[in-house]
Amino acid sequence: MSNLSGVQDVQESKHTRIAIWIIYFIGIVHWLGFFFLVFHEMSDRALIQSFINNPNPVELFESRPFDANDWYREMYMQEGVQIALRTHTVPFHLNMTDNPGLSQTFHKNRFLGTPSWTMSPQVILLYFLDTQTFAIVNLLFLYSIGFLGCLLLRKHYQLGLLPFFFLFLLFNFNGYFVEKITAYGPSQLGYFLMPYMILVMFRAMELKFSDCRNHISLGVWLGVVLVAMLYQGSLHLYVECVTFVLIWGLANYRLWRVPLVAFLVTFSVGFVRLFPAAVSSGTAPNHHYAEWGGYTSPQILINAFVDLRTQLDSPAFGWWEQSLYVSLPGLFLLVFLGMVPSFLKLSWEKFTIWKSLTLPCIIMLLISIRHFKHYIIPNWIPLLNAESMTTRYMIIPLALVTVIAAINLQGLLKEYCHLKRVKYLMVLSIGVITCFLFNHTREWRMHKVQDEFYWWHNSFDKAGLLYHQQMLGTHLYINNNMGDIIYIAAFYIGLLVSLLSSIVVVCWLWRDWKRGRARGGQHINSALSKTWRCISRSE
């Protein structure tokens, strides 16, 4: 078997492939528990005790409507798509003004003018599924896509099982992502595409500056990944990633072809989502920025990594905007493996291109600090001015350091493969982190969060609860105003540009795939097929 240290080349043995499938299903179990594990009104301990006294597994799980926090908006957005699919009608306008909570999101009832709902091909499932079932199925689908991205990183950097599990664990179950799902729902799922963005950028930094064609190819791929985030409805993550790619390109100017091509691809293919939004809402900065957002001190930033807080802890219904929870041992390993080897030039350092990422990550850190964003990203820059909660930018350095730490962990285990205590210490440490992260999910699972939401409003804000219930009672329907000519024209122009651009991109990727096969499969598209065959075949 390819052992924990991964000293052997990653030519998968049967046992290794089984282990990878087990890791994959750990994630499936995690998300099913996240959605369906009930919250006992007394405590989880009381729930376990009642199960011991009356062991009926069915009683531990329950399906209920998700409507707390911003989930009701997400469900309404998916319902709008569902109505359009079932009535075969383009949903230019919906009766959003009947719902004050939705009218804040959709300007003048212009449904297609807000790019914060899923428009990718899997929405066809809404024709057959209810909105909540689709939300769960879509998450599991994109989780699978993200898992494949982690496998590509594993293949490229020859990671053993333990470094791969470390990457899988911290990428999928960190506090930033789990809490964002709890608070905002399906609009966060573009996060699962980040392994592809990271892989493309790392590949670009590994190539020679003179390798023009491969830089263009990687730029196309980077643009495809970014626009895929946009089509998932992850507008905020899209803005953050575009910002980072821009800063990364400026800091590594000799790689200018990669970000330039990426922006051409993402803006042209995503024009059907961006142009109607610009026409509907303009290009002014997000007005929520002045309200709050951004870390106020180094202590708060450290707390974001190590403090396990619920949504009722300070700041109530706001901690998810600051949380980056990885636990104290998780933070220690991220620093020890992801940062220390680079600065001390340790012998087991395996990731050696960190200098290209240092300045962009520092700038992301500065942007995440309250009131600093304006100095780096002026409010007059369209699209980049759309993010109000600057703490969200920290997910990019966190994801990057997670990947780097996994790569360096591979180097550490290879360097000290003769010392079993090193391997056992890492196994123990990652096992402890697993317990911390799954306990975090237990505290932030949907049933518990919804019960806390309704308990708090019923106890302290009955008017807010009544307002919330009134919004939930909205009957949604298509209410097209064909006199809104400029907006409708913007949609069709955007659709035409996106379709033509997509054809060009597909043709390029097809030619690149054929070229990659001719050269031995050195490109990402070839790596995708090879990775899938590697984990699925039996020996």
Give a description of the structure:
With 539 residues, this protein is an all-alpha fold. It has one domain (14-18, 20-26, 65-534). Helices cover 63% and strands 0% of the residues. It contains 23 helices and no strands. The protein has helices at 14-36, 44-53, 71-87, 100-103, 131-157, 161-173, 175-184, 194-206, 212-231, 235-251, 257-269, 271-281, 298-306, 328-338, 340-344, 355-368, 373-376, 395-415, 420-444, 446-460, 462-472, 485-518, 524-536. Residues 1-10 have low confidence and may be disordered.
Concise synopsis of the structure shown:
The chain has 539 residues and is mainly alpha-helical.
For this entry, give a set of tags.
539 residues, mainly alpha, disordered N terminus
Total number of strands: 0
Strand content: under 5%
Gap from first CA to last CA: 12 Å
Helix residue percentage: 55-70%
Tally of contiguous helical segments: 23
- What is the 3D form? globular
Helix and strand arrangement:
Layout: H1 14-36, H2 44-53, H3 71-87, H4 100-103, H5 131-157, H6 161-173, H7 175-184, H8 194-206, H9 212-231, H10 235-251, H11 257-269, H12 271-281, H13 298-306, H14 328-338, H15 340-344, H16 355-368, H17 373-376, H18 395-415, H19 420-444, H20 446-460, H21 462-472, H22 485-518, H23 524-536
